[in-house]
Amino acid sequence: MLKALFHLVGAIQFFYGCYYDYSYVRIPSTATSVTPFGGKFKYLTYLNAMLQTVYFTVALMNDVFGSNESTSSNKPLIRRCKDILFSALAFPLSLFVGITFWGIYAVDRELILPKMMDEFFPTWLNHVMHSNIVIFTVIELATSFRMYPRRKVGLSILTTFMLFYVIWIHVIYFKTGSWVYPILSVLNWPIRIFFYLFSLSLVFGLYILGESLNKSIWAKEVESTVKSGKKKAK
After folding, report:
1. Is the Cβ–Cβ distance between 133 and 49 less than 8 Å?
2. Confidence band of 61 (pLDDT split at 50, 70, 90)
3. Lowest mean pLDDT across 3-12, 146-155, 177-186
4. Measured between alpha carbons, how far is 35 from 175 in angstroms, rounded to an integer?
């Protein structure tokens, strides 16, 4: 019941954050140079919050209709979807968004969330989108076992997502002449490419971190599942 309650709180929180941001956060065009093209869906923060809403909803549905058994030999589809969604996207993207946002914010907040936006983007929403995503994801890692997919599968899903997002922000730039994030406007192309490669390396590292932590925290469950899989294969 506690696990289901946690997943319910997570789903409601991130859903409301997305809803409030989409419905009530309106930044006048005169207050920022960012183009309205793409709406909220041009921000990785917003896409990640949507992803967290989906993940915690799936996790809640698994609590009710699926199975949380750690060594189940025949996991239901919803449980397999939950495990892959968390491993390949929810965990690495949440940490990536949190680390990059607060890291850039600490250096120069004008490059990521200009001070003039405080009037339109409330502090509580900022923490839902950039702080709570990390807190809830780390708690989820520590309290719910999942079996990570093969690394090449997980990294392929993550790479596909990141490449599509990079393509998307460049479509916006070449269509409007405006970068989604102010930091990109102060970088020349060589440094910008290095920034992309660094970001991709960072998110890959966070995927491997999640995999390693999961294997360490849930060592007995991972070993039992592997053994069960080998016996079934025989």
Report:
1. yes
2. very high
3. 177-186
4. 10
